[in-house]
Amino acid sequence: GFLMQTSEMLRKICMRNLVRKYCRGLTAERKAQLQQKVVTSAIFSGKKEGYLGSLSQPFLDTRLKENDLNPKVLQLIRGENIKYVTPVVKYDRNGFKARERLLVLTQSSAYVVEMAKIKQKIEYSTLKGISTSNLSDGIVVIHVPDDNKQKGDVILQCEHIFEVVTKLCILANKQSVVKVVKGSLRFRVGSGKEGTMVFTVGPEPQVFKDKTGQLTVV
């Protein structure tokens, strides 16, 4: 019994040393990757289609460089540390028209940017929720407070959905507010009104306004 206890203790010490050695040998970049992927797993594992396929794809620090942004935009958000920039498609809350935009994540806020204009700013401290579907689409809805400062929730389509949501969660420190929904979700249009988005499976991916006025994501 004593020998077995000693053997078990030695095994644990050996394992601890191996883990420590492995962690010490990690580059800062590799460590950051692992930390991000742990968050992605906690949010999406077993919940969203495409998650397993995303495991082998490293997250990039950013999809666009800071100097890809218009100087006017840089001027407007000066003093904030820009952490991540990616092209997105934004859907209008009313007519659901698709617009090419940039999503800029700083240390304290998320910005939806059109060329030289900031279309919407969401301070992380006010962020109410982040919703995605359980299917393989790249739609993310950023839920904001119902107040005069905000026009309504932000509907975006992202090519790198797992990366975008993970970066947003880590920067905002709001992992707990992410929902992976089935079937449909409600979003705020502004001034107390709500809209509905429906997620469905079909032969080809598309996003359109159906006859009932709902945004349908196939």
From TrEMBL:
GO CC term, one of those recorded: myosin complex
InterPro entries, alphabetized: Myosin_TH1
Positions of the TH1 domain: 48-218
Molecular functions (GO terms): cytoskeletal motor activity
Source superkingdom: Eukaryota
Protein's name according to its UniProt entry: MYO1H protein
Organism encoding this protein: Chaetorhynchus papuensis (pygmy drongo)
